[in-house]
Amino acid sequence: MTENEDNAEDLKRNGNNNSSANSMRKPIDLDDVLINELGQFGWFQFKNIILVSIPIIMSAFMNEYIFSAAAIPHRCQIPECGEVGKDFELQPEWILNAVPETNSGGLSSCERYEPLGTNGSLNFCPADLFNRHNVIACDRFVYAKNNSVVYDFDLGCQEWMRAFAGTLSSIGTVLVLPITGYFSDRFGRRVALVVNSFNFGLFATIRAFSTNYTMYLVLYFLQTCLGAGVYTSAYIFATELVGPKYRVLTGAICPSMVAVGLMILGSVAWATESWRTMTLALNVPCFLIISYYWFLGESVRWLLSKQKYSQARNALENVAKTNKTKISQESMEALLRPKAETTVHPKGGRNLISAVLRSPILLRRVCTTPFWWIATTLVYYGLSINSTSLSSTMYLNFILTCGIEIPGNFATVLILDRIGRKPTLSGGYFLSAACNFLFVILPKNFTVVRLLIYLLGKFGISIVVTSLYIYTSELYPTEYRHSLMGFSSMIGRIGSISAPLTPALAVYWESTPFVMFGGMGLLAGLLVLTQPETRGTKLPDTLAEAEALGTVSK
């Protein structure tokens, strides 16, 4: 081989090596540009979070059924003594002549003594007007308050029907996910946010004029089924353009804004006398979010994924201008360059179901993580809903129970990376469970202590809510992570659907909901201890890496 041929061969070899190195170099993505050039959390991201915080706060108003369909004290109407209608004194002097007492010493809500056919008056209703040896069910009721659908639609002693409003609302929040997902991916994050906000406000406004309970339920279902995607749409806006360093913090800010919304809900319910007025006051402002279509920029990640490169360029330049940074021409061209379509096939061609069944470790996790989600949503929503029955100060109890979530969310940010996932998650479950059990055994006259224990239990489950998503995602391999996370979340909705029905269980024994919350939290905390610690480990990409978690050095 001649010298020239040797040189040519060297140049060719070097060229191939350079080409190989270039091909192996990690392509520039948006996270790289945020970290190195645009800024992970600048004025643009701050402004975005402020803007989307408003619809996130409003999304909490879907829980308005806690007050609009609240249980109110009631008893049988006694027409023999001049009661014709629902608005009479709940406990007149003669009431024990006509209505029996319960075992706890209160008035029976659903039973009365059989009338003998003679009449008295509001001022004179003696015991000899009734057969006190025979108790019959009520057919009409007298109510202590008129600020609930229970009064308007005469739902006395129909506790399961009353509680069904919350369950139907939760079912709607499940069905809205694929609908919002389609709109968000097809038409953009901004359109999804605006459409959901419009539907949310529209159906709630119409619901305020319901003429019967069926109409109220149908409109509530439509409101959540077609509008509850407000939160997920706004959450994506808040997190998509924040750098990796600040995503945990942003993940704590968003649920904290929901807690603020719930506190506003409690305050408005406290300040208004009618549930119809409350519904309008909370939901009519949702129509203001329609204006976001004109002054909230579209998600940069969505624009890039849809190859809308002209709009993406303008958006990136706007981010750089607002953050007072610059994006290099090389980075801009790399982001605006069409990406080659790649399809990743699981190793060995295994599909998800066969992979789970063939891996005992993965199968145990698939059986464990959904229970965490069920327990978390049941306890989290259950404690909020049942807080209104703690004492006569139902509105203050609710506001405090929701407000305690905020320190719980930010406590997670402080401890999750310091003490680890397992101690944080199991500790949150055990704390909440212990508080629920203690709440049951504390005497009722310990009002302040019981409230503090109740709030501490909500604080514990708030820590779980914030850390659960992170820990669950770290247990599954990349090739199956999205599907298995979605499966856990979907099964977890059983808890949120069941939570509104738990107050109805108190009819049989008033501590039933809290024993249930404590038991679920205790079992979930124990199940957390069966899984490996993931703090400091890289996300597993393959099934083998996921199976090796906790067994290899970091």
TrEMBL record:
Biased composition (Polar residues): 14-23
Compartmental location: Membrane
Domain Major facilitator superfamily (MFS) profile span(s) in chain numbering: 48-536
Endpoints of the signal sequence: none
Chain segments carrying region Disordered: 1-23
Topological relation to the membrane, as annotated: Multi-pass membrane protein
Pfam families: MFS_1 (PF07690)
InterPro entries: MFS (IPR011701), MFS_dom (IPR020846), MFS_trans_sf (IPR036259), Sugar_transporter_CS (IPR005829)
Record-annotated membrane-spanning stretches: 160-179, 191-209, 215-237, 249-271, 277-296, 362-383, 395-416, 428-446, 452-472, 514-530
Highest taxon in the source lineage: Eukaryota
Full protein name: Major facilitator superfamily (MFS) profile domain-containing protein
